[in-house]
């Protein structure tokens, strides 16, 4: 594919989208940048953080700024696949069945507390995430090209939860940690929100970009150049994940492909037509933290995947 120059309006447009969100989402610049990168390379996102840290609000405001339809599903232990996908209903008037689409048929889907649903319901998302379509009774129904799943998890409360299977975790581009805000950010949140009407949580944003414009940016991003030295850097890092003594299961070839795509998105956001090693490092942790499995004794020592990723970057020298 021939490399192209990024559009002159690309960076200002993305900045226009994000800037007003900072009035409501203090201290979340890095997660918002990672979400933008995921949207540019067509990836789904797993958001993990304690309740009340604006995960739902962030996705909702992003959908408003990109003019994308948004739906939220609250996952529960008794939820069935048909509750998400939809089902056929019999129309007495026409004496025939008609498919009634479920909430899955949208552009931005917030799967809230996805790990509360049983595995059968979680797996109902697999086809939609991979193929952007749903098959019901042998008939395929297409989803929008910008269909994106934002799934949230509560890392604190584990009672009544079902861990996501590895196959489904691998369909998420990033696992983004949403921490508690800093004291300074929390003060800004209090200043902005305390005067709202009691019970009111509705924040509205004007649209700044169309879904078609975002798709065009995605095509431009995909056309960025990547030198062989960068590809070799990623390949060495992936190989290192399979050899590291703390890692039981390393990164797959799919993870390597997505790593390059995510790095291209970061370069695009930074208004560059080429990928540099810093782009690879920037997306390393959110891309690997749900893909690498550590040995139990390593986790008992208090080490995390993020710690191991730091080891990988120290072990593999970046190209010069």
What does this structure look like?
By secondary structure, the chain is α/β, with parallel strands linked by helices. It has two domains: 223 residues, Rossmann fold; 96 residues, Magnesium chelatase subunit I, C-Terminal domain (Helicase, Ruva Protein, domain 3, Orthogonal Bundle), CATH 1.10.8. A five-stranded parallel β-sheet has the order 2-5-8-1-9. A two-stranded antiparallel sheet has the order 3-4. It has a two-stranded antiparallel sheet with strand order 6-7. α2 packs across α11, α11 packs across α12 and α12 runs antiparallel to α14. It is globular, with a radius of gyration of 21 Å. The N terminus is likely disordered.
Q: What is the CATH T-level topology of the largest domain? A: Rossmann fold
Spans of at least 5 consecutive residues whose pLDDT stays below 50 are 1-9
Number of helix segments? 14
CATH superfamily of the largest domain: P-loop containing nucleotide triphosphate hydrolases
Q: What percent strand?
A: 15-25%
Total domain modules: 2
- Main beta sheet: 5 strands, parallel
